[in-house]
Amino acid sequence: MTFGRTPGGSNIVHSRRVLGAVALGAIVIAAISFGIVDVSIADANNCVGSRVDCTDESVPAVAVTFAALGALALLVSILPTVQWIVEAIQASRTSNHEADIEEALLARRRTRSLALDDRF
Questions:
Q1: Which of 4, 47, 64, 67 could cross-link 42 (Cys pair, CB 3.0–4.6 Å)?
Q2: Residue 101 in domain
Q3: 67: which strand partners?
Q4: What are the helix and strand counts (H, E) for the chain?
Q5: What are phi and psi of 67, to 5 degrees?
Q6: Does residue 15 sit within a domain?
Q7: CB count, 10 Å around CB of 42?
C-alpha cells in the first residue's frame, strides 16, 4: 500500500488492488463504449441484419459521444497503470524501514528456533 498527499493536504491511500480495479473497470467501460459506437454506426447506415454490403455514410452523435467516452476510459486506465509502475520502481529503489525490522525479527526467531532444535 502506498501513501500520498493530495494538494489539499489530506492523505490518500492507493493499494495495488484499487489501482488494478480502476484500470480494469476503465478498460471494460472503453470496450463497451466502442461496441456501442460500432452498433450505432451500423444501425444508422441500415447495416444491422443486412446481407448486402454497407457503406458508412453517416456517423450519429451517439457514436461520437461513446467514442469520446471510450477514449477517456482508456486514458483513465492508463493513469493507474503508470502510477503503479512508478510506485513499484520507487519502492524497489528505497528501503522500507519497517519491512527491514520485520525481516530482522523473523531471522532472529529462525535462529533461536534452530538453536533450540540443536539442544535436543
A1: 47
A2: no
A3: none
A4: 3, 2
A5: -65, -40
A6: yes
A7: 16
Contact status, residue 34 vs residue 67, Cβ threshold 8 Å? yes
Total of domains in the chain: 1
Nearest CA to 80 out of 23, 42, 5 is that of 23
> Percent of the chain having pLDDT more than 70?
75
Q: Give the position of cell 525479527.
A: 105
- Please check whether residue 10 lies inside any domain of the structure: yes
> pLDDT tens digits, residue range 94-114?
666 777 788 888 888 877 776
Q: Which three cell numbers stand for residue 106?
A: 523473523
Domain membership of residue 56 as a residue range: 2-94
Residue type, 117: D
Q: How far apart are CA 69 and CA 76, in angstroms?
A: 10
pLDDT at 114: 67
By the 8 A CB rule, do 59 and 106 touch?
Answer: no
In a domain, 6, yes or no: yes
Calculate what percentage of the chain has a pLDDT beyond 90. 12
CA–CA dist 69, 32 (Å, integer): 10
